[in-house]
Every structure is written in C-alpha cells, then in structure tokens.
Amino acid sequence: MMEIDRADGRTPNQLRPLACSRNILHRAHGSASWSQGDTKVLAAVYGPKAGTKKNENPEKACIEVIWKPKTGQIGKLEKEYEMILKRTLQSICILTINPNTTTSVIVQVVHDDGALLTCAINAACAALVDAGIPIKHLAVAICCCLAEDGYVILDPTKLEEQKMKGFAFLVFPNSIHSVLPEGSLLVEGEPVEHGIITSVTHGLMSVEEYLKCLERGHAASAKLSDFLRRSLKLQLPSDSSKAK
Amino acid sequence: MGLPNVSGDLSAEMEVDAFRRLFPLRFYERHLSESIRPDARPLGRARDTTLALGAVASADGSALAKIGSTTMLAAIKMEVMSPSTDSPDEGCIAIDFHMPPICSPIVRPGRPVEAAPVVSKQLSDTILSSGMINLKELSLVSGKAAWMAYLDIYCLDADGALFDAALLSAVAAFSHLQIPIVSLNDDGKIVVVSEEGEGGKLDKEPVNKEKRKLTLRSLPFSLTCILHKNYILADPTAEEESIMETLVTVVLDSSSRLVSFYKPGGPVLAYTSAVQDCVALTRQRVKELKKILDEAVSGMEID
C-alpha cells in the first residue's frame, strides 16, 4: 500500500485537532461550537416549543433544522443538509417524551475547510446535550475519503476532498466503552456502535472500498466518542437552568 | 387482504381497513411476520416498472417512468451557451426536480415541498458522480459554444421511492436524447437547424452533421429499501415510507460499483449485514432495470 503524504503531515488515520465549547450563546437554550482543524460550525438549540408543524406527527416531538451557510443564499445544498441533519437528530432523540413540541436547531457555518457535514452533526449533538433535550445516545460523525488506489484517509481538508475519487460521511452512535469498559451490547454479532445512523457518499467506489471506509469509521468513532464524552463532562451541572 | 381467516362479509372488510388506519404498524408487522406485504409482494421484490421513451415530442429527449404507481416524466431541452473559462471544452447539465400539487395530497400550491430540493440535489450528485455523461461530448466549438442540457423531472404521482423513479426517468431520457443539428450563421452565432425545408439553402456547413446520441458509460440505477427491525423491504410505497421511517437508497452502476449509499438518519441502525443485503438486492434490481431500459431503447430504434 502506497503511503499517502497528506499536505499537513497527518497520518491517514489521524483526525485534525478537535475543539468543542458549550454554552457560548446566552439567549439560546443550548449552544455549542465544534471545530475540526479550520472547519468550524456553531449550533444553537431552542426548545422544546409548543406545537408542531402542519405535516408532522403531533404524537411525537419534532426537530426542525435551519442551516445557515457562511456566504450566499440558501439553496438546494442547504436544504439537503437540513434534511439529513433533521433525520439524524430525530433518530437520536427520545421523541416520545415531549409530544407535540418542536425543538429548533440552528446551524451556522463559520468556516468550511472540508468535512463540513460531520462538524455540523457533532456540533448539533453537543448543543442538544447543552440544552438538556433527552437523547438516547450521542451521534458521532466521521468523514472518510478514498484515494485513487483504494487508500482510505480520515477527516479530509477541502483540498484533499477535491482530489479524492470519493468520500463517505458516516454517523455512528457513540461508543459505550467509556462508560462500560467491560463491553457493549452485541446485535447480530456486532457491537451496537457499529450500526450506521447516517451515510452519505459521493463519487464512485467499489462495495469493498465502502466496507473498508465503514471499518475505519468504526475505529475513529470510538476515539471521537471518547473526546465528546470528556469535553461534555467538564461543564458543571449548575448551569443547566435557563430561562425558557 | 392477506390477514388469515378474513370472512367475505362487509363487517370483516370494514374492520381490516379500520385496523390498517388505526394501527398501521401492527398491520404491517402481521404481514412481515409471514414474509409478505399487503400488496402481496415478497419483501425483496420491487413493483412493476415500465418505461416509455419520447413521451414529450417537443423535447430533445424525454421519458416517462412508472414504478408501481409512482410516475415521473423527464424531459431534456438543449440550449447553446458559452462555456465557462475554467472548462472551455465542456458543456453543462442542469437538473431540476419538481413536485407539482398533482402528485400528492400533502403538496399544496405555493408551499414548497421539503422533499423536492433534496431529491433534486441527490439526482445531480448521483448523475455527476457516476460519470455517466462525458461533458466534453457536449462541447461544440471549444471556448465559444457548448451545449447546456436542462433536465426537468416532474413527479406526476408520488407513491414512494421517488428517487428511484426519478433516476430511472433521467437515465432513460439521456438514453433517448438526440442532440439537435446546429450551424454557424452570419453573425458567428450558433443556430439550430430546423428539420423541414432547409435542404439545399444552407449558407454554412452544419457544425455537427447529424443528430447524434450521447455515449453513456456506466448507467446508474438505484433501489430504495426500508429497514424495520430485522426486515428489509425493497421499493416501499408512500404508506410504508410514512410508517417505517428508515430508508436506505443504494445506487449501483452497470459494472456494480457503488455510486451512492444514502441513509439519511432513521431510527433503525444499519449493520454490515444489512448493508450487504441492501447491496445484493440492488444488484438484482440493476439487472432488471437494465433489461427494461434496453428493451425500451431498442423498441424506439425499430420505429
């Protein structure tokens, strides 16, 4: 296997430096900013608010996502991101707890240097935790890129994304290992955290290469979920009271 | 309707319909435990698919695709434009997906549907990713003129699996597309040569001699599946999609390469076995769709 030299000197499995801060916006019920290298996304959560939208099921809570790009008008790309984020967050939230309510998640792109969707999902998750919305488990997002010779690299920058033949955004539930080091539940012989919540791919790849991306994604999600758990734990529980 | 011990009288029929409306998930699970669905399809089978090429006579390429009740009309209009400076010998494709109110009771006039821009973007990404169309073929005069293909897909009936039907109609429309003949007129502009009567009076030679078709490599075909507990249902109807919300769309091209594995969230997680099962179902479906498309294309050529 040919070693790929990445422009910033990272190994293929190495993620960019991660930074997560919570509670940065004071009016929002929950907020977080997440950055991976130069890509930075700010997420704010307002809710639960009373009432659901017209076509939504009133017996469950509803999540509404608004995606704000850094520049330019809102177009189809933003609508797609909103839909993907909404369905991903709906699958991690416990929707039966607050029926007939709407929780709004607003995502603002601060800077895009590759792996934007993964950054946004991670930020939205952290903001939901900050707001105290009941969720089943966290969602950990990772981006895997495929080079021409089948080599997989993680967490690409924008330049790397453009040169690759394909990439896959994967979202997994977070690993239970940080809480229960003795092991996790097995479903069909695979640990629960290997199930894909969301997968979006671009570019042509073979099925085996996609499965290889999945494996790398599993390994990286364990590291990411450790980071998430550590950074979300640092805040004191006393600042969870917010004016609604 | 598939439930055991249904007697023929009206009261039993009313009960089944009421049960279907009041407890849709239990209604479906009773069927799934017998490995069948309410419309008597086995779990892995897609609905009947038909394709009609040349549905819109005034368009340069068009197709009408029906998967079960889901109906999509795709039409391509070609226009000459000047190519961008960073790709002077490439044409351009603009894909748009419309959901007019005729297609579904949840679509109201004036209020844009959430699904439409998402399917539109998915289609553009898939068609560009798959490399089906070589944009250099759309070039006329390098740096000065190139074709812009406007592909519009109208959903006439939305009954589940919208992306599959839309992609099929787009691929069929491109297979049917014939690039019009153009010539250079006195002002140095490209004009389209009309079919009738121009015969011996052409001042300039046409830039392209005859109507030609695009060479399409590796056509992409897709299959949407629903994951529900341990079951994988291929090609869902709108009712199934609204009850069991986890959808997976797999797009494979004719050489079995993965163009897209699209799973936008959903309560059920997809493990590696589910991924492989979905890909296997899609491989079968690609063979069926390729056959249907080839039959439709050869049917047009005989005429």
Automatic annotation (TrEMBL), chain A:
It is found in: Nucleus. The keyword rRNA processing applies. This is Exoribonuclease phosphorolytic domain-containing protein. Belongs to the RNase PH family. Keywords: Exosome, Nucleus, rRNA processing. CDD domains: RNase_PH_RRP46. It comes from the Eukaryota. InterPro entries: ExoRNase_PH_dom1 (IPR001247), ExoRNase_PH_dom2_sf (IPR036345), PNPase/RNase_PH_dom_sf (IPR027408), Ribosomal_Su5_D2-typ_SF (IPR020568), RNase_PH (IPR050080). Its main location: nucleus. Transmembrane segments: none annotated. Pfam families: RNase_PH. Residues 14-134 form the Exoribonuclease phosphorolytic domain.
TrEMBL record, chain B:
Keywords: Cytoplasm, Exosome, Nucleus, RNA-binding, rRNA processing. CDD domains: RNase_PH_RRP43. It comes from the Eukaryota. It is found in: Cytoplasm; Nucleus, Nucleolus. Residues 46-180, 219-268 form the Exoribonuclease phosphorolytic domain. One of its GO terms (cellular component) is nucleolus. GO terms for molecular function: mRNA 3'-UTR AU-rich region binding. Signal peptide: none annotated. InterPro entries: ExoRNase_PH_dom1, ExoRNase_PH_dom2, ExoRNase_PH_dom2_sf, Exosome_comp_Rrp42_subfam, PNPase/RNase_PH_dom_sf, Ribosomal_Su5_D2-typ_SF, Rrp43. The keyword rRNA processing applies. GO terms for biological process: exonucleolytic trimming to generate mature 3'-end of 5.8S rRNA from tricistronic rRNA transcript (SSU-rRNA, 5.8S rRNA, LSU-rRNA); nuclear mRNA surveillance; nuclear polyadenylation-dependent rRNA catabolic process; rRNA catabolic process; TRAMP-dependent tRNA surveillance pathway; U1 snRNA 3'-end processing; U4 snRNA 3'-end processing; U5 snRNA 3'-end processing. Belongs to the RNase PH family. This is Ribosomal RNA-processing protein 43. It comes from Hevea brasiliensis. The lineage of its organism: Eukaryota, Viridiplantae, Streptophyta, Embryophyta, Tracheophyta.
